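note to self — DONT lose this again. spent like an hour looking for the file last time. sequence + predicted structure for the chain T wanted, 295 res
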Amino acid sequence: MKNVAVIGGGTMGNGIAHTFAQSGFKVQLIDISEASLERGMATISKNLDRMVAKEIITDANKQDTLKNITTHTDITTGVKSVNLVVEAATENVDLKLKIFKQLDEVCDEDTVLATNTSSISITQIAAVTSRPDKVIGMHFMNPVPIMKLVEIIRGYSTSDTITNTIMDLARKLGKIPTEVNDYPGFVANRILMPMINESIETLYNGVAGVEEIDTVMKLGMAHPMGPLQLADFIGLDVCLSILNVMHDGFKNPKYAPCPLLVNMVRAGKLGVKSGEGFYDYSESRKAEKVSSQFV
């Protein structure tokens, strides 16, 4: 497997493309929006610059990585002659099913179809294809170029051969793959999202403020980032979507999203991506922080 297509130029998609390209794979990055592709490539270039500045890679490595990526707005052209497709579109089940139906039609019959979904059933996704044995989950962690874990999720029909191939592939990317079974939320989000949701409930019930809750978890539990700040970085809309998937899948009230989370998403306060969530990421706030450094 040396030729890979990645569906989606957003945060996860461009991170996955970056990781494959830096490991020497030829990557076709696909998105319906040319603007999204341009933003994705700009992010990859900026992240590579940081690695050069820290002397993790050389400038020649950066240039080779960028040369390994080509961009496409047409999915049929983008997946031509690839060995693997990694879908990293929005965490929406209807969208993913639509994409996999199309991939099944336009990809070579031996092409492996992987999804970066963080909660949606691999078995359900595989069922809309004619190759369920070649459909698998590759759940990368954000930021992809840095985080070592990849959850490898096998659906009901995923073959042992494909599972072993993808496990080996993840190792070639410098990752540590962990095989898990296909249940809502898998392992990472089945444990993480209830913690984030309970943190939001704690805020909602007035037990403590945002910074206080995060401080307790950082200093008391040795978490590198507080759960509310982490929710902002994941995206509150993504957190809500994952909780809804688990709530629907398990029919258990403990996975029901906190009303505060629901209202914040409705109000468009999605975290870092929107400029405001539990914390303020707006340009004015950034300017205040910079100014305060010189007072």
